[in-house]
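Memo to structure team: turn this sequence into C-alpha cells by end of day. - J.P.
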Amino acid sequence: MSKRGICWILLLIGLLFLVPYLGQARKMILSNSARHARIEGYDVSFKDSQNKVVSLNQLIGKVVIINLWATWCSPCLAEMPSLDQLHKDFKSNSNVVILSVDIDGNLRSSSKFLAKRKFGLPVYQLNSALPKELSTKSIPTTIILDKSGKLVIKHIGGMNFGSQKFRRSLLDLTKE
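Reply from structure team:
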C-alpha cells in the first residue's frame, strides 16, 4: 500500500475516534432573537453559603458571569484557578458580579472543596430553576449577561478566564 493510502486510512481512523468528542466543548452561537432576550422578568435566584439570596433582577446594571460547575467535573476543576483569579482581579469592580454555582447544591461540601484549594471565590447554588435560555445539561457552562440583563454568551465547556481578550471584552461590557 502506498504512503498516501496509509495516510488516508490513519486520517479516517483518527476521525472515527474524534467525532464523538467534537461537540463537547463548544461556544453556543446565539440567534438574534435569543441574543436580545432579556433575562429581566425571570424569577431566577441563587443562594450563597450564608443563605443570602441573590436574584438576577437585583443585578440589572451589572455584568453578570454565571459559572455552572460541580466538584466531580474535571473540566470544571481545570478552569477553576483562572475563574478564581478573575474573581480576585474584579472583586473591587462594582460593575461585575461573578456567580460560581455548584449545580449539586451542596454548599457546605463545595465551600470546603474551594477552601481546601485556597480559592476565595464565593459559591452559590440555584435557588430557583433556570429559564430555558440559560439552562444546560453540560458543565462547565459559563453564561454572561450584560448590564441590561441581555444574554451575551452561553459557553459550554471549559474557559480560560485569564485570557486578555476575554478580560477586554468583559471591561467593554461594563462600559456599555
